Amino acid sequence: MENLGTWTPFQECYMGAASKNNHLLENADHRFIHELGDQFFALLPKHYLKRL
Fold first, then answer.
1. Which pLDDT belongs to residue 3?
2. Which of 2, 4, 14, 40 is exposed most, by the fewest CB atoms within 10 A?
3. What is the pLDDT along the chain (52 residues), one digit of tens a residue?
4. How many CA atoms lie within 13 A of 33 on its CB side?
5. Which top-rank group of organisms is this from (predicted)?
6. DSSP designation for 44
7. Residue of 43, 52, 51 whose CA lies nearest to 12
8. Are 14 and 47 a contacting pair, CB within 8 Å?
9. Residue 37: left if φ>0, alpha if ψ -120 to 50, beta else—which one?
């Protein structure tokens, strides 16, 4: 795995939108557990994981 401090374009787009939309932020865990499993969460910065 590469540097965990870097974001993919998808992460930048999704978390940027989720930080402005509480509905997206609250449902992000459910969506990614079912679509991508824990792989997505392994790449997220800790401060965003705490918000989920």
1. 46
2. 2
3. 444 567 677 777 777 777 777 777 667 666 666 666 566 666 667 667 677 6
4. 6
5. Bacteria
6. S
7. 43
8. no
9. left
Alpha carbons 35 and 50: distance in angstroms, whole number: 20
Closest alpha carbon to 40 in 52, 51, 29, 27: 29
**Cβ(18)–Cβ(24) under 8 Å?**
yes
Tokens encoding 30: 């459910």
Indicate the burial class of 28 (C-beta count within 10 angstroms; 0-12, 13-18, 19 or more): buried
Q: Rounded CA gap, 13 and 18, in Å? A: 9
Intra-chain end-to-end CA distance of the chain, in Å: 23
Q: What is the largest CA-CA distance in the chain?
A: 30
